[in-house]
Amino acid sequence: MFKTTKRNWKRLGLTAGLGLGVTLIAAGCGATEDTASMEDTVGKGQEIELAYVEWDDAVATNHVVAKVLEDLGYDVTLTPLDNAIMWEAVSTGEADAMLSAWLPGTHGAQMEEYGDKMVDLGGNLEGAKIGLAVPAYMDVDSIADLTDQAGKSITGIEPGAGIVAAAERALAEYPNLSDWSIETSSSGAMTVTLGQAIENEEDIIITAWNPHWKFSAYDLKYLDDPNGTFGGEETVHTMVREGLETDMPEAYQVLDQFQWTIEDVEALMLQIYEGESAEDAAEAFVEANPDLVAEWTAGVAE
Fold first, then answer.
1. Which of 102, 155, 224, 274 is deepest in the core (most CB within 10 A)?
2. Are strands 97-103 and 47-52 parallel, antiparallel or unpaired?
């Protein structure tokens, strides 16, 4: 059963007006029944909190992991946060884990600032990538070849995101982009703008990354990056708070063993984009992939 509540994150520097939503994932129907049933599970009703940024890949990933932990008997809270606050929350123990650390490049600054205050469990997804992308119908293949397309504007996501910082470096490093600008908004707004541009076959340059459903929904191409401003392929890491292994060793083990592929996450992301709730899509994925779930829970749920 899924419930919604809110949590006060003011001590992490957020104002109450942000009203960040929190999704609670709880097993059973009634409180008494929940408590009784969880006593016989691995998790025994222990509370665990996963922090994430509301990027489509992070939504999919965290709901799948939350479902697996829920099935083991944990009381799981999903907390959407700004990227910088997500890192801070895990480093201070305000949240137990996050599964969205893009390394070594995209979140390199956050890793340098917070990495020694948390535990790096290694990669949960290989082959991640960031860069500038355009619809395939645009007659440009390299960042170095951009001239006046899309009104000399790049459509970005949230200010402060690693990919936006990389795009800002590109404006400084590529002479042909010296008078270009980046229009920041949000991940959702960027994809809406992308869809509208493609529907009208207009020019658009976006800050892009994969895994993302947009590469399944639209015919897109990355622009070559001869200066290497956006770096190469990256790995998405799982980071947990210090002490989690002692406090919840089985949950720690599941988080440590969680790995999947770009094909897995993009298929799930597309389902969510097409209207299925993240909870339902995650539940269906878990039910349809028992062998994969068995790998994640090996030594925990035998």
1. 102
2. parallel
Q: Are 132 and 157 in contact (CB under 8 A)?
A: no
Tokens 């939504």 found at: 59
DSSP string, 26-40: --SSSHHHHHHHHTT
Are 236 and 250 within 8 A, CB to CB?
no
Q: How many angstroms separate the Cα of 123 from the Cα of each of 7, 126, 235, 244?
A: 29, 7, 6, 18
Element (H, E) at 153: strand 153-155
- For residue 10, the SS3 value is helix
**How does DSSP classify residue 223?**
P
152 Rama sector, left if φ>0, alpha if ψ -120 to 50, beta otherwise: left
- With CA atoms as reference, report the closest residue to 250 among 37, 34, 27, 43: 43
pLDDT (tens digit per residue) in 38-80: 568 898 899 999 999 988 899 999 999 999 999 999 999 999 9
Residues 54, 124 within the same domain: yes
Identity of the amino acid at 94: E
Q: How much is the pTM?
A: 0.77
Residues 93 and 148 grouped into a single domain: no
For residue 86, the one-letter residue type is: M
pLDDT 10s digits, 263-288:
999 989 989 989 999 999 999 999 99
* 112 belongs to a structural domain: yes
- What's 95's domain CATH number? 3.40.190.10
On whether the CB atoms of residues 162 and 106 are closer than 8 A, the answer is yes
CATH number where 186 lies: 3.40.190.100
Q: Are residues 111 and 134 in the same domain?
A: no
d(CA 2, CA 13) in angstroms, rounded, equals: 28
Pairing outcome for strands 206-210 and 220-222: unpaired
